[in-house]
Amino acid sequence: MARESVEQNIALLDKLIASDDVEHIEKLKMLKCWNQPAETEAEILLARDKAQEALNSIPTTASVHFATDLTLCHSWFLQLSGDINGAMEGYSRSIKTAYEHEDIKLIADARSLRGALYSYIGDFSAALDDLVTAQGLYESLNLTGWANINLTDIATSFRRYGDPESAIKYYNKLKELYLKKGNEEQVANVTSDIGIALDEMGEHEQAIENFRFSYQYFKKHRLNNAAAVNATNIAYSLIQLNRLDEAEKYLKEAELEITANEPAAYSFMKLFMGKIRYQQGRYQEALSELADAENAFRAMQNDRGLVQLLQLKSEIYAAMNDLPSAYQTLQQFVALTRKVEDNSFAHQTTELKVKFDTSWIESENKRLLDNQKLKEQELALLEKNKSLQLIILLLTGCILAIVSLFAYKQVHRNRHLQTIALTDYLTQLPNRRHIYAKAEQYFQQALKLQTPFSVIIFDADHFKKINDNFGHEIGDQALLTIAQASQALTADRNLIGRIGGEEFLILLPNTNAERVWELAHELQTLITRYGAINLPVELKLTVSAGVATLKPESKPQDESFARLLKRADNALYDAKNAGRNCVKAAKAAS
């Protein structure tokens, strides 16, 4: 519905609702809060201030639902204005109140909003926890529109989590729904989301086609801010294709609309301009652009974007021969990367498993829905006599049977989500978090039983050249070949994990230093053999490897798996420096 039509309807309701009709006055105030214009920086700040005024003027006799919904509305405009901490605090407070009063719709709304924010700042475990819970509640309440919006955030979380292919499947389903309903604006939004996922898969030309479709729609309908965001997305794809002049043209157009008071879009716009300036050799200008981007990323607490920025910044300093600054920035990059990707990886993986078992989510949602239905039944019982008790018992049995069937289907669906969350989408091996959790278990077991535990960390040599010379499809085939050879070595895929782009980790319980040295060389032989079968003749696939062993009986020893992994990683670094295509053993623990 057009904004003008919404505003006209709200004005009409304002005239029709009686001054003593408290219930409908509260609903009208909620509508007014959520339907404020928020296209420009000035409109967002004004909406935030009006929401704050509405909160401050809530009478003591107001309903809890009204107060909680206004808190959510205010938190939403805080998020749009860049106050992430304030928004997160408001969402969490609203969730607590909604649960206390078993307000199912508000629980779903608050957890959907908080989940989307968690996803943006990179906490995917918490994001999927909130979003999956909200999805179940929306579907149970038959709120299809809200369920579709929430499903978009789930798809986006999978994309950010590193599974763009699954994300595209969700986006395409949503796009079909919106096309059938004739909702052109939502089609444009989802098409833009598909473009981002395609970019992450390296399909930049297809991504540009999607972004331009959305860009042209928003330009045509004078949705200038959304058009500017899509112009920024187009620029990123063009940069990846080294079409810098075209990319700069789109970014300059976006700069006319996006300001520093819109940090979510501004941060990436400035980051991409910094990339262009770097590739043009204009290093000081690049650093200036990145300084603006860094302020915006930090304001939004967007560690994912900040990681990209720090890596680029380090490369710029290196190109300027400012090695101290390059090294310092690289240290910040490494520390932040560990925070984003390895933050208590064993705990986080265990937590993710527990959350995506989702039996507790299903149980809690079922309890809320059952309580709501029971309350409705109690109200009906007050108006009926005792002769209806038998019928009510029969109906309750039917309801329990339906809920049980629903729970069964939900468990199967969420088990699939768990598998996706713990598996690398290309090789189908355990991903970084999964293999690290396994490693922590074997490490603790080795300490307890006083048995050796070894690891091999390795990656493909000159992988960027493989992609550049043979294409990404052959690059993917090379990674699949490495995975196939690794499984032939261990006969257990759960002992192998893909922990980076072309980097893999093999866990070897009850394996001493001499044996792991032999296995690492066998691995190199297998990879070369499989590569000769699966890859072009002119491509010689080799790997460099580092090995390390925990020896519980020797002193000193590794105090944690992270230290053991660090020694193996240093050995891999030594193998790279030694000319690649070799194996190096880690130095003794210190």
TrEMBL record:
Query: Which residue ranges traverse the bilayer?
Result: 388-408
Keywords recorded for this protein, A-Z: Membrane, Transmembrane, Transmembrane helix
Is Transmembrane helix included in the keywords of this UniProt record?
yes
Per UniProt, the enzyme's principal EC class comes to: transferase
Q: Which Pfam families match?
A: GGDEF, TPR_8
Question: Per the UniProt record, which EC number(s) apply here?
Answer: 2.7.7.65
* Reaction equation(s) it catalyzes: 2 GTP = 3',3'-c-di-GMP + 2 diphosphate
Domain GGDEF, by residue range, is 451-588
Task: Fetch the NCBIfam families from UniProt.
Answer: GGDEF (TIGR00254)
Q: Which PANTHER family match?
A: DIGUANYLATE CYCLASE DGCM-RELATED (PTHR45138:SF9), REGULATORY COMPONENTS OF SENSORY TRANSDUCTION SYSTEM (PTHR45138)
Q: What is this protein called?
A: diguanylate cyclase
